[in-house]
Structure to design on (101 residues):
């Protein structure tokens, strides 16, 4: 039953948007865009792991209590852990601004 619910939540949850189809003409700008896209994809994957530990029904305050130990063990600031958790729930890059991006 747990696996079915987990899969249903993944199916409903918004995946990160695909990178833009057009690539900038400036090679350094294209490299920066790839770097940001890779960081966002990795943040989404880490956010899904954070959701395994602190499910989406928990508030940020309750999730902070649960994630503090995990973030401390993996060397990730708690603010980053909460931000990637919110990003995994919403798929909105703005959840990462000011913390991860």
């Amino acid at each position: 039953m747990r696996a079915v619910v987990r899969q249903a939540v993944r199916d409903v949850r918004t995946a990160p948007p695909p990178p833009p189809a057009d690539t900038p003409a400036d090679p350094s700008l294209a490299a920066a865009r790839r770097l940001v896209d890779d960081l966002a994809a990795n943040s989404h994957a880490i956010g899904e792991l954070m959701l395994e530990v602190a499910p989406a029904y928990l508030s940020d305050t309750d999730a902070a209590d649960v994630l503090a130990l995990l973030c401390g063990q993996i060397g990730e600031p708690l603010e980053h852990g909460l931000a990637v958790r919110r990003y995994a729930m919403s798929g909105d890059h703005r959840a990462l601004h000011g913390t991860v991006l």
Notes: The chain has a mean pLDDT of 83. The CA atoms of residues 48 and 88 lie 6 Å apart. The chain has four helices and no strands.
